[in-house]
Amino acid sequence: MVREIITLFAGQCGVQIANSFWEQIAVEHEISLDGISYAENDESHAPTIMFKEKLDGSYTPRCCLFDTDPIPIESTRSGRLKNLLDPEYSVMGKEGGANCYAYGRYVTGKTIVVDVIRKVRNLLEQCNSCCNMTHVCSTNGGTGAGMMTDVISTRAEHKHFDTHSYKVYPSPTMGTMPCHYYNTILHMNSMSDLCDANIVIDNETLYHEAEQLIKNRKDDITFADINAHISLILSGCTQQNRYPGGADLKHLITNLIPFAGADYLHVYLAGCNEKFEYGSELSHIAPLTNHLFDGNSASCVMNLDEGEYMCAAILYRGENISPRDIFECLYKVKADKRLKFASWAPCPTKSSLIQIKPVIAPTSRFQLNSMSVVKVANHTSMKSVIQRYLTNFDALYKKKSFVHWYKDMEDQQFLEARHQIELVQKVYESTVSYQ
Ligand SMILES: Nc1nc2c(ncn2[C@@H]2O[C@H](COP(=O)(O)OP(=O)(O)OP(=O)(O)O)[C@@H](O)[C@H]2O)c(=O)[nH]1
Ligand SMILES: [Mg+2]
Questions:
Q1: Which atom of ligand 1 is nearest to the CA of 203?
Q2: What's the structural domain count of the chain?
Q3: d(CA 148, ligand 1 centre) in Å
Q4: 157-180 pLDDT, tens per residue?
Q5: Is residue 261 part of a domain?
Q6: Do 71 and 190 fall into the same domain?
Q7: What is the distance in A from the centroid of ligand 2 to the CA of 15?
């Protein structure tokens, strides 16, 4: 039975990531940008998990894009993916959310939210047994942070699927707006009961990562590069469901979140650069696996040398990888005295293997090796990441700066949100077993 995945993309950040993501997924499932399948062997692919088959036999993604600002949606409708993405499922308003959670949720968001929820219900009705609703946006702006909460609340009607998020959170030194911290804390709080797992990404980390990965680059790193990287991560995390033989997404997340509330995960992708493309190393997964456990191998600015891994899922993809290789690599990782795993977790690493060669969208400036590995992990140093958001929130709120823009919100909502996120931070703090 097909277990479908629905994806929602909100705001400028989400919609621009959608453009890159669907190009990547279409290549992986051998679907042209006109929606026509060119796969020779249907058995190894299950395109209907993420694509809907139309009456004429072509495919269109099971997704909805929405933004209160018309520009990102208009450029998607006229862009490279204009024949792949169904315009019916891209909803736009007339005016953006002004970088303000309250404006994006209660003012401009209200003009399109009913329409978006209707489209999401349609997407659900078109599924046989939807297993996951993944949503992608930035927590920093007005529309993604504000409106997404109302859209995901449809989940209350359909409890049988999980919701996962891939979101761009504020960067420590490359922030573009002070209100990002209000929007982020308010968003994290309003999503806390609606989302089962949150993948934390920041542009600063991916920017530096892209600088290293794209050798011989002639011009600067752009959002297109960062979005291509996020797409590979998202592709890596969903590949278990998309190809036969992989573990279900639900299994993955169940093993990663040992305590309620501790659902902020980091990810890391290894294998998409030239770094490992020399000598015999390419023929073995060990260097890729070891690289995943370096101190800064995370999707957001965090120090993995501090604290410990609660759980880590290592998702391998490649034709020539054997389960025995994986077992040996992970055995060595667990025996490595430099790495700390929670003392209470008897089996802190979970692995999965898809024996299909990785592929990459033609427009991406990254390169893939013959194998790729994605780490999805829960690490106690997430406490410092959340603390950083709280500290910046406090700096603003002490003077109540910018609060007057949040017209439809009461002081109490700010305080409550801050309190709830502090509790999440405390969960991470209290789980460290090696003090
Ligand atoms: N990775 C990535 N980040 C983006 C992109 N576009 C914007 N951002 C980041 O997203 C944050 C702002 O969020 P937006 O998505 O622009 O905001 P929005 O949800 O459209 O909200 P409003 O415009 O306020 O209604 C900033 O931190 C930007 O740096 C993108 O294409 N890729
Ligand atoms: Mg916008």
A1: 1
A2: 3
A3: 13
A4: 777 889 999 999 999 888 778 889
A5: no
A6: yes
A7: 9
29, 122: one domain: yes
Centroid of ligand 1 to alpha carbon of 418 (angstroms): 22
Token pair recorded at residue 123? 């997407």
Atom 6 in ligand 1: residue holding the nearest Cα:
13
| Cα 144 off chain centre by | 14
Q: What is the pLDDT of residues 211-231, one digit of tens each?
A: 877 766 666 889 999 999 999
For the stretch 128-143, pLDDT in tens is: 989 999 999 999 999 9
Q: 3-state SS of the chain: helix, strand, coil percent to 5?
A: 45, 15, 40
Atom of ligand 1 nearest to the CA of 226: 1
Tell me the CATH number at 76: 3.40.50.1440
Give residue 325's domain range: 267-380
The answer for residues whose C-beta is within 8 angstroms of residue 198's C-beta and 6 or more apart is 164, 165, 167, 188, 191, 263, 264, 265
Residue nearest to atom 5 of ligand 1 (CA): 13
Closest ligand 1 atom to 201 CA? 1
State CA 151 to chain mean position distance. 17
CATH number of 315's domain: 3.30.1330.20
Q: Are residues 333 and 374 in the same domain?
A: yes
Task: Ligand 1 pocket test: pick from 67, 137, 138, 173 the residue with the most ligand atoms within 8 Å of its Cβ.
Answer: 138
pLDDT at 285: 86
pLDDT for residue 146 is more than 70: yes
* Cα 433 from Cα 221, distance rounded (Å): 39
